Amino acid sequence: MAVQARKRVLRHGLVGPAASLAAACVGWAATFAVLPGELGRTYGELGEASQSSGFAAVAAGFSILALAVIGGQIWRLFTMGQVGTRLVWEVPAGAGLAPSWPFEGEESGLVGTEEVRSGGCICLAEFRRSFPGADDHVIEEEGIHASDYCPLHGIDRVNGLSPKDFAALVGESWLWDEQSDLPGRAGSDEKRLLLYGFAGHGFTGIPLRPRAGLVDAAFPEIGLAREGISEVAEPGWDKSDRPAAGLLDTIDLRPAGYNGFAFRYRHGRAWFEAAK
Predict the structure, then answer these.
(1) Section 213-238 average pLDDT
(2) Best CA proximity match to 170, nearest among 267, 265, 268, 259
(3) Which of 31, 145, 242, 262 would disulfide-bridge 56, Cβ 3.0–4.6 Å?
């Protein structure tokens, strides 16, 4: 999907130059169409306004814009060619290049497409029962929410894991409540982002996420990473608080390399809370 997203961005990058160039051509065509009728006429005879001058000004503006966007696209292609298409970069996130939000969307409670087709999993059947008209490509690209009753991914499975087994599976999205944050790795890699095709300002790269032992884009329509500032590096709304009742146990995930705790609940999936 990252390759598809890259091609999509490149295709969309051609729209600006093409539109600007077309507008400039129309403007110059209108200028030269009107100009012969105005040649030899005085300012007063033209009614104190020259249509050809107006068209020429608009055409010149679009010509400059076309040159700018074409130059930007050429620079983008050059930088991408220097980097190549086989590299995945790991860059700092947050305030600065490539903020982790909103590109690292929360995926809590999801089951991957390969897992839902494994023997014993009923998540896909439950999803189709609840949403009979759902598009297959959505399931393929984004996964589905785990069924609470699934023997492999349900609440009983989450709560039946020993603390050691839970810590070993902590990176699995289906362990976590939909409103919970996903666990973050402790240490220097905690606030870093994976980017495909990163080539500096010319092409800021396609944000990636780990998936089934690989890394890929969340969906083909994802946009480029953007440069961020501290004011927009985090979402502007309050995060949900974990439930106050029904707590089953607490698991310290720091020995497993994560920066917080898992709170398991009797009738729901686990919640992650970062260490203070």
Answers:
(1) 61
(2) 259
(3) 31
**pLDDT at residue 66 above 70?**
yes
Q: Which of 25, 27, 22 is closest to 35 using CA atoms?
A: 27
d(CA 188, CA 274): 15
Task: Please state the separation of Cα 192 from the chain's center in Å.
Answer: 15
User: Do residues 202 and 83 make contact, with C-beta atoms less than 8 angstroms apart?
Assistant: no
Domain boundary among 58, 83, 108: 83
Please state, in angstroms and rounded to a whole number, the distance separating the CA atoms of residues 237 and 68: 37
Residue pair 168/256 in contact (Cβ under 8 Å)? The answer is yes
Helix (H, G, I), strand (E, B) or coil at 9: helix
Lowest mean per-residue pLDDT among 91-105, 188-202, 227-241, 256-270: 91-105
**pTM above threshold 0.90:** no
| pLDDT(232) > 50 | no
